[in-house]
């Protein structure tokens, strides 16, 4: 991964760092990233983006040209800028493994580091974690709606920038998508690649039949043909007539991208079956999301797979998370924000998950990290002293964790409709710590 500029941050991160520097405030700070509440109609989130956070923390430093710019931009003292020359991340990270189902107030990640390190990385950590976690949850809902059918990420071209398109391919794959059309995601992470053709290819050829034949011969290993450029059903008939001419039948599927997808799928299926092409699958795309997939399948549409793009990659109905990265401890003392509607639980916390006799999740406990309970600890070490504690898991392992988590989720929470909230209990130990933090803050004020 190429080094990202640490200047990809908010101005106040640097102005706070200068103020900390001037006061000599660089004791160990503990920050945690969490989601305050779930987006409307969501019953769960999926922790995603940790890999990119760790990559960022490993390589974060100030380049010479960045320091030079800071010296001359007119906002910062020279001695403060000089102090940044050897700045790097030397702290610890505890985190939920990627693919873990997560609920409100539960930390996805904890940073333990000198204040100047822990503060500066805030913006990028929020940026990386909230986006992939949001997209992964949206993609998982598509997976639940598709009930085992092929799902391909088609969203790069309408994603909000190249990084968003690339990371949404990763997030959707770890959430259970079959693959992506984004080629770089295939090279970088080994995500299976899928693609068809554009309408321009059909239009550029002398005839639709010629376009089908040329493309099929160019892709003898198998391909999907787009059949709705002109007349969808007539294109299906042309395909039936063409198949005997191909020495090696290589057409695996046809793609529908417009009109009444359900009705076209029914008509095309009948044409293909009558022409002896029952093995040719039907793939649909075009402004799809979990709700349209559910409705199409509930209507009995014979669709074998879906290309899902814009609405998933942008999480169009809920395009952001109400999330935060907050100071929970400084210089060994618990710290707590008490703002109306945005109060936080202080201290280093742990999430423990309980399961019923049937293996289903029955509730989580949010408690202080030192509190001992029988349930599984969800936050585990990811970095110590600025270095990873172990090699990152393969995407296949993360996908398996998501699959297992969804299978263990209570049935109502797997629905696309809002359900009674998953129970997250705050321990008495954490209530007591919050009370102590409040008393301490009152004495100091």
């Amino acid at each position: 991964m190429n080094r990202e500029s640490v200047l990809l941050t908010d101005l106040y991160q640097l102005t706070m760092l200068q103020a900390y520097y001037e006061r000599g405030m660089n004791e160990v700070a503990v920050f945690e990233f969490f989601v305050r509440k779930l987006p409307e109609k969501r019953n769960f989130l999926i922790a995603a983006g940790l890999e990119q956070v760790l990559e960022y923390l490993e390589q974060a430093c100030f380049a010479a040209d960045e320091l030079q710019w800071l010296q001359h931009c007119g906002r910062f003292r020279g001695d403060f800028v000089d102090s940044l020359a050897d700045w790097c991340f030397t702290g610890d990270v505890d985190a939920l493994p990627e693919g873990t189902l997560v609920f409100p107030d539960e930390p996805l990640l904890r940073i333990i580091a000198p204040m100047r390190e822990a503060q500066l990385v805030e913006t990028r950590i929020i940026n990386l974690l909230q986006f992939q976690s949001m997209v992964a949850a949206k993609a998982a809902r598509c997976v639940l709606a598709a009930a085992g059918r092929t799902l391909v990420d088609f969203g790069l071209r309408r994603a909000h920038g190249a990084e968003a398109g690339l990371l949404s391919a990763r997030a959707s794959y770890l959430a259970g998508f079959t693959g992506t059309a984004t080629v770089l995601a295939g090279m970088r992470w080994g995500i299976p690649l899928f693609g068809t053709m554009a309408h321009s290819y059909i239009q550029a050829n002398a005839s639709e039949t010629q376009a089908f034949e040329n493309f099929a011969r160019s892709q003898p290993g198998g391909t999907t043909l787009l059949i709705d450029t002109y007349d969808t059903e007539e294109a299906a008939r042309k395909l039936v007539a063409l198949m005997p001419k191909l020495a090696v039948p290589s057409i695996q599927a046809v793609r529908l991208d417009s009109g009444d997808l359900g009705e076209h799928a029914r008509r095309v299926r009948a044409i293909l079956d009558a022409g002896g092409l029952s093995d040719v699958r039907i793939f649909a795309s075009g402004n799809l999301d979990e709700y349209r997939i559910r409705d199409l399948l509930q209507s009995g549409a014979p669709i074998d797979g879906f290309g899902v793009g814009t609405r998933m990659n942008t999480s169009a109905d809920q395009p952001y998370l109400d999330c935060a990265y907050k100071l929970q401890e400084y210089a060994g003392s618990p710290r707590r924000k008490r703002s109306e509607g945005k109060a936080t639980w202080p201290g280093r916390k742990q999430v423990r998950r309980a399961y019923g006799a049937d293996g289903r999740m029955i509730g989580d406990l949010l408690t202080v990290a030192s509190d001992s309970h029988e349930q599984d600890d969800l936050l585990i070490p990811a970095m110590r002293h600025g270095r990873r504690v172990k090699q990152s898991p393969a995407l296949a392992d993360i996908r398996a964790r998501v699959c297992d988590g969804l299978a263990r989720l209570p049935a109502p929470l797997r629905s696309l409709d809002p359900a009674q909230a998953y129970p997250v209990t705050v321990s008495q130990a954490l209530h007591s710590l919050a009370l102590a933090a409040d008393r301490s803050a009152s004495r100091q004020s």
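Residues 122-146 form the longest helix (25 residues). The chain has 16 helices and 19 strands.
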